[in-house]
Amino acid sequence: MKRIEDFKSIIDRYDIVFFDAFGVLKTHSGLLPGIERTFEYLAAQGKEYYIVTNDASRSPAQLAESYHKKGLHFVDANRIISSGQLTKEYLELKVDGGYVAYLGTDESAHYIESAGLKTLPVRDVDHTNIDKVNALVFMDDEGFDWFHDINKTVNLLRKRTIPAIVANTDYAYPTSKHDVSIAIGGIAQMIETIVGKKFIRFGKPDSQMFMFAYDLIRDYRPISKKQIVMVGDTLQTDIIGGNKFGLDTVLVLSGNTLPQDAENRIQATGIVPTYICESAVLGPEALNL
Amino acid sequence: MKRIEDFKSIIDRYDIVFFDAFGVLKTHSGLLPGIERTFEYLAAQGKEYYIVTNDASRSPAQLAESYHKKGLHFVDANRIISSGQLTKEYLELKVDGGYVAYLGTDESAHYIESAGLKTLPVRDVDHTNIDKVNALVFMDDEGFDWFHDINKTVNLLRKRTIPAIVANTDYAYPTSKHDVSIAIGGIAQMIETIVGKKFIRFGKPDSQMFMFAYDLIRDYRPISKKQIVMVGDTLQTDIIGGNKFGLDTVLVLSGNTLPQDAENRIQATGIVPTYICESAVLGPEALNL
Amino acid sequence: MKRIEDFKSIIDRYDIVFFDAFGVLKTHSGLLPGIERTFEYLAAQGKEYYIVTNDASRSPAQLAESYHKKGLHFVDANRIISSGQLTKEYLELKVDGGYVAYLGTDESAHYIESAGLKTLPVRDVDHTNIDKVNALVFMDDEGFDWFHDINKTVNLLRKRTIPAIVANTDYAYPTSKHDVSIAIGGIAQMIETIVGKKFIRFGKPDSQMFMFAYDLIRDYRPISKKQIVMVGDTLQTDIIGGNKFGLDTVLVLSGNTLPQDAENRIQATGIVPTYICESAVLGPEALNL
Amino acid sequence: MKRIEDFKSIIDRYDIVFFDAFGVLKTHSGLLPGIERTFEYLAAQGKEYYIVTNDASRSPAQLAESYHKKGLHFVDANRIISSGQLTKEYLELKVDGGYVAYLGTDESAHYIESAGLKTLPVRDVDHTNIDKVNALVFMDDEGFDWFHDINKTVNLLRKRTIPAIVANTDYAYPTSKHDVSIAIGGIAQMIETIVGKKFIRFGKPDSQMFMFAYDLIRDYRPISKKQIVMVGDTLQTDIIGGNKFGLDTVLVLSGNTLPQDAENRIQATGIVPTYICESAVLGPEALNL
């Protein structure tokens, strides 16, 4: 583990950079000031990037648009890998017709539709269609009535022996400087405990997320894991996931892990990044090439 | 482990019978037909009973009244031990003034009020009173907006280092023949995982429930654990809890544990009741004394 | 939570003091220097004490003798409550004859013998006696061959549906300034996961430990929980256990919880002692009465 | 989920078959009688196979040799994917020199050596080399003194902030018709709980195992997940792992899952194989081509 002053030197060492989104590129109050320079430098150096995120609430196109609106025009939808895409791939390969019930917004149902399957919000499951429900997906924490639909989901899973897929493994996400909201991964965990069945989870730290991005790259160029670095703010997802997949990793201190806590948390968890760096933002001088 | 045909012979062997409520005395569709004979026989034999329940949604008086309305007039509020009473005792001993925030119905807040403390539904916590909140209690799964108030509870516990008490350890409860509802214990478990703090739980299988009943008895008569039997339908709460406290136990097959599953579940869990009996109901002939 | 400079003022506030042993009265290198003054002051003030410990490796008489050898002559065997005694009570009430198999030293088997039952070290379980084994007790981490006897225990529990009792819930204990050893509670936890059965655990933080001491006192004098304080060095056992039982609690910083970590750990765990005090040792001036 | 009478029809549907080893090809008493016909038929049909196993106790070459000795000459070392190989890849990518400490036999250390790193059995860790230990690997449950070396491992991980890799995620494995032995994955789990750090696990059900085999295939031929089927006897590893990776799956009833329990376990766990088949053995008539 080495402390690195300047994120530029990280970029210089690798050919491809994987970024976590929240806490690395943006926070609850918007983009990290100056983060566009990082992308400008990447482009200038002919380096590639991917954004690897557990956010399955919107499609990559919608996620990219939200970066554009915030002023980060470099972000391309094709460079966003969300756990929603793994969910889509699973559904394509493993579910043959029928309905896919889901908890989440209509937008999040995009990943189900794009797998060519019929969507059914949990609130609309009833005795006329329950036998045609062939999978359940936990997409997002919004878009449904918690009391009514969470209880309904428990009973759906007690009655039907179908795969339950969690498209976002996070338990909570920040909504302001001091507040968090429970993520769909936390709700799914509660339901899994109650029904006693085994759910399928997609998202960091699971290797399948990294593999998905890695495979995309290999489709158009040869690459070795040694040429890729994963940048994240969370030891338990970004760093251990990147490590296990065999990537070098950078812990940035702009999100979940506070500067004063970093060393303690690394020691306590035994999750060791290759580098620690204040943030992924480059100084203005970095672009004086 | 012995199979017993007739619950009468259980009563004959002990001086005091502890009953679980749900699945033993009543189900979602009302009282077990004939259960009043069990209480009539107990009275005729000069035996005592206690109902030991994880239901903290209402006061013992309200719980007793609900039995009376269903037609079981023998049940006395003084013989109902609910996990709510342990919560009340905890609050009396350990919380000095201020507010006690809670999730649950107004009725469930009875246990807080009766400890002489000021109640505050989580929905009413705000910046003017948050610093005066000295404990949080999970009372019941109804009486609040799940989305709004569960998230608010997470943030309350992140901001204030206060005890969080779970007045009902159950994860779910049946609402009809085929359906269940998530209990407040399941919600509390999710929040505990998310905030990473350690909650205080009251309810079976924890020994403190049995001790509370045992102490009540010792206040007016000498008693040994050998004279008491615990009757329940759930291995993981009633039976292991009773066993650990040192009581003989009876598994009845009128609730959670189906007749065809009983042996398998006992073997799989290693939780062995002293007796297995179809139900706690006595045949009409039992009263021909 | 209040910081208290002088442990004397704690004693002055209560009638009975419960002490944890390790980290409070002694460490791996012997008695805390000066701790005898605490006991002298207690005696002088007519206050009572109990030592409430998860150490089931030896009988209370042997534990008391070990204090005497170290120079603390005040400690009386009758004032030591070990989790071994709860195990003994359980066996007396719940096991009718046959053998009780155990992992531990011969000394630790004392608790089984004193329940009037026949002991059988796991290494001696064979096809001639396995059907007479009516309980298994995890007593201590020494006195057996780990590889051979831990595997044998797994298979015993797969073949026999009997209660498995853990007489010490701790996962590890310190053996020197920098080293720990795995305690029998850690081994039991591994076996419980592997066999998938539910074990019965005795020891702090479980209420039954505190109840046992409380009941002993009530046999000879009236007492309220308000008159007792629990003193310990570990938030997850001594403090949360004492709190839940309704006692005031003192966290001392002479053992598991380092002075620089105390506030952070309290905040992270949400386990709040009534008081924090450097140690349970009194200054020499305390005895100038 | 479909019941299939004849494993031949499974082979006919796919191009590549992934087999679990234990409970599918062999049991504690040797090869499944007739299993060589399955491999003969695969060869005759020009179909490929891979053996995907959590057994990291020996190298693929040694594993292949053990099949040859048992009489199954078709098995090629290049077609065996063990969790040891993922461990080797991790070490190559992520550990730069120094020692790799390990628990296991000398044979299991093969995977560390083949990553070009210096091996150090935990028993030989001492103050002269502890600072050069850069990773710890849990390889196998044999080859070391449990009491001495498991405790030593706990203290090594308390002193050094290094990655801990578990090369076999299983908790136990069968050693005879009625007995099991604790696997290194069970021991690792106990140590992880005690030291509170996060270990890196390789082995089914983790996707990285399947990905490793999939990547091997893609190096020499184009393939889609639809052309591969995973055959296993364990829902919690083979089937859920295969499902999650997007493969069709076959549950065979020759190992962990007994014929009479299959439906119940599928319903209880919610882990649904594509097919259920008595075993992977073909009848003699299958070869009359």
In short:
4 copies of one chain form a homotetramer. Chain A has helices at 7-13, 35-44, 60-70, 83-94, 110-113, 146-159, 184-195, 207-218, 235-245, 262-269; strands spanning 2-4, 16-19, 26-27, 30-31, 48-53, 80-82, 99-103, 118-121, 133-138, 164-166, 172-174, 180-182, 200-201, 228-232, 248-252, 275-277. The first copy, chain A, is of the alpha/beta class and 289 residues long.
Mean pLDDT of chain A: 96
What's the CATH topology label of the domain at 61-229 in chain A?
Answer: Rossmann fold
* Molecular shape of chain A: elongated
CATH top level of the domain at 61-229 in chain A is: Alpha Beta
- The helix fraction of chain A, in percent, is 25-40%
Structural class of chain A: alpha/beta
Distance between the termini of chain A: 29 Å
What do we call the CATH homologous superfamily of the domain at 61-229 in chain A? HAD superfamily/HAD-like
Order of helices and strands of chain A: EHEEEHEHEHEHEEHEEEHEHEHEHE
Radius of gyration of chain A: 20 Å
Task: Report strand % of chain A.
Answer: 15-25%
Mind telling me which CATH architecture of the domain at 61-229 in chain A this is? Answer: 3-Layer(aba) Sandwich
| Low-pLDDT stretches of chain A | none
**Protein chains sharing the most extensive interface:** A-D, 35 and 35 residues
Number of strands of chain A: 16
Chain oligomer state: homotetramer
The major sheet of chain A is characterized as: 7 strands, parallel
